Amino acid sequence: MNSVRLRRVGMALLAPAIAIVVSVLVTTIVIAAVGSSPGDFWSAMFSDPSPRLRVNIINQTAMIYTAAVAAAIGFRMGLFNIGIEGQYLMASFAAASFAGAAYLGGFLNVAVSIIIAVAVGAAWAGIAGILRTTRGVSEVISTIMLNAIAVTLVGYLVDRHGVHEGNSVHTKTIKSGSMVKGFTPYEPRDGQVWALSILAVLVGVGFWVLLNKTRFGFDLRASGQSQSAALASGVNPKRMIVIAMMLSGGVAGLVWLPALFGDAGSYGTSYQSQLGFLGIAVALLGRNRPLGMLFGAVLFAFLSAQSNTLTFGTDVSPSIVQITQGVAVLAVVVAYEVVRRWRTRLERRVVADEVPAATEATA
Amino acid sequence: MSTSTTTKNASPGLVQRLTKNWFYLTLVGIAVVSLVRIVTDTNDLDSAGTLRAAIISTCPILMAALGGLWAERAGVVNIGLEGQMILGTWGAAFFTYHYGPWVGILGAALLGMIGGLLHAVATVTFGVDHIVSGVAINLIGAGAATYLAEAVFSDYEGGGPRQLIGLDPPTIITKTPVISEAALDLADKHWFFVSDVASVVAALTTNISTLTFIIFGLVVASAWILWRTSFGLRLRSCGENPQAAETLGVNVYLYKYIAVLVSGALAGIGGGFLALVSSSGYGAGQTGGRGYIGLAAMIFGNWRPGGLLMGALTFGYTDSLRLRDTDAVHALLLLVALALLLIAALRAVRGQINGAIVMGVAGALVLAWFLLTDSVPREFTVMTPYVTTLFVLALGAQRLRMPAADGQQYRKGSAG
What we know:
The complex is a heterodimer. Chain A is mostly helical.
């Protein structure tokens, strides 16, 4: 019994291991192919990160992890929320606008802004959910369209209502009383770990509780694994789709808030895009499991942050880690599939070995 | 072989009916555009210059859409078009720099095909979810192009980490003797109907890249291959019912591989067009989501070549307008309003009352928007393709029909 469980754990870890090996190999080959030194690259990547980078890694991990949870909520029920990118863009803009307008003071302003971000993210994702349930529109296509619409819409709104400063434009800067800075683990010049990164922890724990300890989580997983079985056990699939989509969008709304209240102070040039796609990648890498995604988020944040050191000392440009990240995702999904097929074959063989007598008897 | 004879008997009638239909539709379309142009006094609405820009904007979208068609007709959803297109822009720049523009286009196709190969290996051989693989390919495509540009183009003449400019474009037809000038003269007269046709002729004969004709040729060729050859029938059968195809002896994996490779190559050529014709070289982030717009154009066109051509032209036209006169954009509102009201009338005649009401109300709203405002923010034209697609999907999802086994995993031997 023990050996079976051990083997199962081994197999679960096998796929990520294969993926890491493949992405390391591909990265090395690409670097060597353009005539740079892979050795320099890897030694720079695995050097001890400076305090400044460590702070950066923690902050990035929190944002990527939140995006990953948002993606995972959809994935677990068989929905592809490609639209996290657009959802957190709309939400970040809405929250920044509201907080910047300073209708409320201090932490109340922050709290209401967070609620607004969640509501806007959920609403933007809800459009895709409702289109899916009422009109049968694939959420993949509609969220891609909504992403593009969000980019232009926010661009238009910022341009129209924002504060113009030279060539750049941003929303009204949040008053310092409503900023939530964070704590300084090293020297002040090394930056701060943003306080709202705690949202990522809450989201992660909440996700685990929701999935494993609640009726809703059970329904969600059931719908993801078999629509017909879920329907038979009394789950309303349409309602589930809309709720899951909005939940996913709501969590997506939180993605950029740590940076907004911790450092940026407004929506503008400091806005960080692409976190949504990184989140999807990390969700795939971590198999939509809370801990797996944490591992993936740390890995991605580490790669992104650490790649900034490449400009000193090597001639490899930091964008190489984008290849590493992309290959890791593709490799991990392929590896999971290969391991799954292998395991099915193995199980079949075990069953075939155990039951020949029984088959003969019935025949 | 009774089936072949029936097809022979039926096909001339069908073709005749279609061409007749299309022919009249085009005539009515030109008349409406001409009317709007004269009523709003915006000759830029369909001047030769506007149309030329529209054609240039259309081509990359068209290639992406055609790439999507090939893959999806064989049952593979290709969200990775964007990534394959980005790879194409890099490939076009690299090969053009070394070997000239025509090899550059082949290089773009090759790079796109590599992206397609990745997608095919993941989805066909390993049965990975198509969307997941596509998302990963978009990440890899964008990362690879950025990295390779920084690593390779920085040392080139006219190059930098984020661009490579000053590349030779493929042959351009600057002027067709007699026709160009006559058409331009006629277009400048601003007569009803005649000048609009002349604008089209002028745009197609003056300052146009030969690659444009090749691209339109590829659409016709694809339509013929997919719908008029036995190869195409087998390929489409893989997208409709792979199990049935397999029982008839079709090598489903092979056909899916071919389809996805062609799909990647076409998207790559679209990227090549962006790098060599739309601008004079590679630039980071050049594709700007056109792979996704291509996907939208394909869905808009109901997974059919004629439809996706219409979709690509519509989106290409709106895409080009954002660079032009804002008056033209405003005049476009009247055009959209008239088109919606026409569709509403058509539906009312056919007895589809609900559809007629929705379209009629939409048309009236757009008409009101046109009458009550003087200009349209540029951003709204950028949004047009996406909003249109959402509306088309929401209103017409029941009438759209994608290949029956599109996006489903298929394993060899599952036919039993």
